[in-house]
Amino acid sequence: CPYTSCRFLLSFALLIYQQLPLNGDIGWFRSLFVRKVDARKDAHSNLLSKRETSNLYNIQFHNVKPECLEAYNSLEAEVQNKLHHDEDYPCEVVGSWNTWYGEQDQVVHLWRYRGGYPALTECLQKLNKNKEYLEFRKERAKMLISRRNQLLLEFSFWNEPLPRQGPNIYELRTYHLKPGTMIEWGNHWARAIKYRQENNEAVGGFFSQIGDLYVVHHLWAYENLLSREETRNSAWQKEGWDATVHYTVPLIRTMESRIMIPTSSSPLQ
């Protein structure tokens, strides 16, 4: 009868669906069964970032000549302290780290511009007229192999990164997402962040605006590597964390983890 035939076809379709891999190439058939994120009529930067602030962040990755790392740290700390405490410059150092595990002889800096793009523009214009800073850049260039940066916004559901006492180690987890998936990522992590805040390990969460696009950075703090392992394992004991991993992994193209040690001048210790 028609009813039996329909039941058979539906059962057959579901059986095929269950055998399909959980990845981005699910094809037209499986897409029929996947819950869609509602269409939005606004940029994801407006939907995911904090409306009550206009903070803009700049993350810098500097690859330093191995023999110059100590001199680089010393020179960078001197200039950072001056800029950080100079009220004429609308920028502040959030944190500076040497990579411990990950890309070696690499230094990571995170800057905050309170006031967004206008503050960034003002700061760059002033620095380009600062002879002392221009001399610093020439001296620093002699110590570098390469450098790159990204401009970031902070996710609305993450806490703002604030200075903290140490000693701590920091983990920067970087996710390169598939284009078009940032809203879905934010939807899942807005619920998931509660599973990772009990031990005060959550420092900040950001997504890129200029530079490599569809990039997410999560910054975590731990007492040591053992504490990191125990904290991450405890998340799996909380109901709902497994669902977050299940639904966000298919959104990722590549991911990277850096374990970092704060420099002596970093506000995040």
Could you please describe the fold and organization of this structure?
This protein is α+β, with helices and mostly antiparallel strands and 269 residues long. It folds into two domains: 34 residues; 228 residues, Alpha-Beta Plaits, CATH 3.30.70. The protein is built from nine helices and eight strands. Strands 1-3-2-8-5-7-6-4 form an eight-stranded antiparallel beta barrel. Helix 7 runs antiparallel to helix 9. The longest helix has 18 residues. It starts with a helix and ends in a 7-residue tail after the last strand. Protein involved in mitophagy. Accumulates on the mitochondria surface in response to mitochondrial depolarization and acts as a 'eat me' signal by recruiting proteins involved in selective autophagy. Belongs to the NipSnap family. It is found in: Mitochondrion matrix. Keywords: Autophagy, Mitochondrion, Signal, Transit peptide.
Topology:
Layout: H1 2-19, H2 27-31, H3 44-48, E1 55-64, H4 69-85, E2 92-101, E3 106-114, H5 116-127, H6 131-141, E4 144-154, E5 169-177, H7 182-192, E6 202-210, E7 215-222, H8 225-235, H9 241-248, E8 252-262
Antiparallel strand pairs: 1-3, 1-4, 2-3, 2-8, 4-6, 5-7, 5-8, 6-7
Helix pairs in contact: 7-9
